[in-house]
């Protein structure tokens, strides 16, 4: 079934590994959905740090994925492949993508798309999949966060951070966040953090230990934060690692992990199986989408760029000056 998409489309290509300047507009072939896949006419695409890593040559897409950047998008179903039963032509969706979101059309597995929550615009919806899949799978399923526990997220003003603060608060946790400026700390508090810690002049370890220790920490910094996170955890606490902006190697004494029964875990989303991502999507629809519909969780949007200005969007995300998500307007 199809709405007869065109043969060619506008997209953003990575012309060579490098800085934002290697992102160039191009005309490429519209992909054709295979078994279990849907083709989305993209309205908006989310911009995420893994996109910048891919552009720099540090995060290769899976072999079967589009080489174009872009891991999330919103829009309307333009075509469905054989075996698709969940969606019809014209349905409004937001979706996790294996790649290819920086384009007028993008493919994804039908089970990785979700309906637009009530009251949410397509612009807002494009900001939901990558952060919600990542945050929910890590703080709930891996970290086992429970109501009443103390939760710390590093980079609280990022897209991941702003989502994690709201979701953890909605789950009944006490939320702490780190950020790098008074403005960013104020944004974290406005979203529901009871304490925002300016990491430039405050010690998050001392603050969390004074509060009783963190039961769950969500960290994307790594490097020197790893041993400090261990010290900031309460007994039986869980550290969940999702990125390593400061590096993945550090010397650390693991005796404390044993004696205080700590758990260190982590994940990356993109390489996981279609089955795993479909499971996360079911969890989101049941547990998270109602929070979005009621306004308890809404995406914080920092800025919007035209598709042709994707390089500027990457410059913005790499400054780390943004608060919340960055989106590309595609159509």
Automatic annotation (TrEMBL):
- GO molecular-function terms, A-Z: NADPH binding; oxidoreductase activity, acting on NAD(P)H
User: Which segments constitute the Enoyl reductase (ER) domain?
Assistant: 18-328
User: CDD domains of this UniProt entry?
Assistant: p53_inducible_oxidoreductase (cd05276)
Keyword match Iron: no
Oxidoreductase: present as a keyword of the record?
A: yes
- Keyword set, alphabetical order: NADP, Oxidoreductase
The protein's name in its UniProt record: NAD(P)H-quinone oxidoreductase
Species of origin: Gemmobacter fulvus
């Amino acid at each position: 079934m199809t709405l007869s998409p065109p043969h060619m489309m506008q997209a953003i290509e990575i012309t060579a590994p490098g800085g934002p300047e290697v992102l160039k507009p191009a005309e490429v072939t519209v992909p054709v959905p295979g078994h279990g896949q849907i083709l989305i006419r993209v309205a908006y695409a989310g911009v995420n740090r893994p996109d910048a890593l891919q552009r720099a040559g540090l995060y290769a897409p899976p072999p079967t994925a589009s080489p174009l950047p872009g891991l999330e998008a919103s829009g309307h179903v333009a075509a469905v492949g054989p075996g698709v039963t969940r969606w019809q032509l014209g349905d409004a969706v937001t979706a996790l993508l294996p790649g290819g979101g920086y384009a007028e059309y993008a493919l994804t597995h039908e089970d990785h798309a979700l309906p637009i929550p009530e009251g949410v615009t397509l612009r807002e919806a494009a900001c939901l999949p990558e952060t919600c899949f990542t945050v929910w799978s890590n703080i709930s399923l891996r970290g086992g966060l429970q109501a009443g526990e103390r939760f710390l997220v590093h980079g609280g003003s990022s897209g991941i951070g702003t989502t994690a603060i709201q979701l953890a608060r909605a789950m009944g946790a006490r939320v702490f966040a780190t950020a790098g400026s008074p403005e960013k700390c104020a944004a974290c508090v406005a979203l529901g953090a009871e304490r925002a810690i300016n990491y430039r002049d405050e010690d998050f370890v001392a603050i969390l230990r004074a509060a009783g220790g963190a039961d769950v920490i969500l960290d994307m910094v790594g490097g020197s934060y790893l041993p400090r996170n261990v010290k900031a955890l309460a007994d039986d606490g869980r550290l969940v690692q999702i990125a390593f902006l400061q590096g993945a190697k550090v010397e650390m004494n693991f005796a404390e992990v044993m004696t205080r029964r700590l758990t260190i875990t982590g994940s990356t989303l993109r390489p996981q199986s279609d089955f795993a991502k479909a499971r996360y999507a079911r969890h989101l629809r049941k547990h998270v989408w109602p929070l979005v519909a009621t306004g308890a969780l809404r995406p914080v949007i920092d800025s919007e760029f035209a598709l042709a200005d994707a390089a500027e969007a990457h410059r913005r995300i790499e400054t780390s000056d943004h608060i919340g998500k960055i989106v590309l307007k595609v159509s």
